[in-house]
Design goal:
By secondary structure, the chain is an all-alpha fold. Helix content is 74%, strand content 0%. The longest helix has 36 residues. The chain folds into 3 domains: 95 residues, no CATH class; 162 residues, no CATH class; 53 residues, no CATH class. Helix 6 packs antiparallel against helix 8, helix 7 crosses helix 9 and helix 9 runs antiparallel to helix 10.
């Protein structure tokens, strides 16, 4: 329905623009814009070629109009504009779907064990994992090394991805079980709350274990974009589990999809506000102060957002962290807040020549 909504939205967009003050006369407006642009381009080009100072002024305000840039920006404008138009049209004109009339709905299973047995199997597997975690906690690092041959950092890193997948799959198991479990009697509802509630509690412990594992691994090997992203994703999954538990109390979950969408969007916006590359640089430098270990190559590969943090380093270390950084020459159309802050942070600081082997530590 998404491409169709974009096409259906074109006349809707036209009517919207036509209703705006001053935009009702489309043909006259187009003619005015075309003739004005033609006069600007022709006379601007003549005066710019006739006077070096005018050319300098125009060069500061006119963006790069090379063929590849015009084509690229035109494509992005159409692609982004079409996506926004389709989203706006679907939001204001949602499709009408009558589930009851079409017979599409939840069909509970006839016997309780049909949904309860698979859920209890998953609950049992979670219990095995939690027992293993408790054994590691009480047995200590020596026990872990003796039984698995892994260091603690290697052990916590080994299963993080699996725990994240397990958390996501648990939400799927809960959704299917809640859809198929009968709720006709108080006994049915009690079994549903107890079984899925136990699974949710175990899942929250797994989420805490996964986040703790990543924290230990970051302290051992440093902070990266991927590790920060999976931290946020795992935390968002934990929030969804809490929401599922709240829905299970009243056995009403119609609000859950919207909550998942809104909370996910808030998590992404919050991640952007944190300024990830600056956050990563700051925490890696804090770790460097404590342990003397840092990956200068990784810091050098961070974006301009990290430059204000890295610029506070002493001269030699700053050269290690910013050896590949170059000041960008953006026009007004390409202006970027991160690059502007980076240039302001470094100012006129001279770039220190970096000889091989001069960085304080290796990776």
């Amino acid at each position: 329905m998404w491409p169709g909504a974009g096409l259906r939205g074109l006349p809707w967009l036209g009517r919207t623009l036509g209703a705006l003050p001053g935009l009702g006369h489309g043909a006259a407006l187009v003619r005015t814009v075309v003739w004005s642009a033609l006069g600007l381009v022709v006379f601007g080009a003549l005066f710019a070629s006739a006077d070096a100072l005018v050319a300098e002024w125009f060069g500061a305000v006119v963006p790069d109009l090379s063929a590849e840039n015009v084509v690229l920006r035109g494509f992005v404008t159409v692609a982004v504009g079409g996506t926004v138009l389709a989203a706006a049209y679907l939001a204001l004109n949602p499709p009408r779907i009558e589930r009851e009339s079409t017979g599409v709905g939840a069909r509970p299973v006839a016997r309780r064990y049909e949904w309860l047995a698979p859920v209890l199997v998953v609950v049992g597997m979670f219990a095995v994992f939690l027992v293993a975690q408790a054994t590691v906690v009480f047995g200590g690092h020596a026990y872990l090394r003796r039984t698995t041959g892994l260091t603690y950092a290697e052990y916590v890193h080994q299963g993080f991805a699996q725990l994240t997948v397990a958390t996501a799959l648990t939400l799927l198991v809960i959704a299917v079980a809640a859809r198929k479990a009968p709720r006709a009697t108080p006994s049915d509802r009690l079994w549903l709350r107890v079984a899925l509630g136990a699974l949710c509690v175990e899942t929250l412990v797994v989420v805490a274990s996964a986040l703790y594992r990543m924290d230990v691994y970051q302290e051992a090997y440093g902070f990266t974009r991927l590790r920060l992203l999976v931290d946020v994703f795992e935390g968002w999954l934990g929030l969804l589990v809490l929401a599922v538990m709240a829905a299970g109390v009243v056995l009403k979950a119609g609000w859950l999809p919207r909550f998942a969408l809104v909370s996910g969007a808030v998590a992404l916006l919050g991640l952007a506000l944190v300024n990830p590359d600056a956050w990563i640089a700051r925490h890696n430098l804090d770790r460097y102060d404590e342990t003397g270990r840092v990956d200068w190559g990784y810091l050098d590969g961070l974006s301009d957002d990290a430059v204000p943090v890295l610029s506070e380093l002493p001269a030699t270390e700053r050269a290690c962290a910013l050896s590949g950084w170059t000041r960008s020459d953006d026009d007004w159309l390409e202006w970027n807040l991160g690059r502007s802050r980076a240039a302001a942070a470094l100012g006129d600081v001279a770039k220190v020549p970096l000889a091989i082997g001069t960085c304080p530590t290796g990776d």
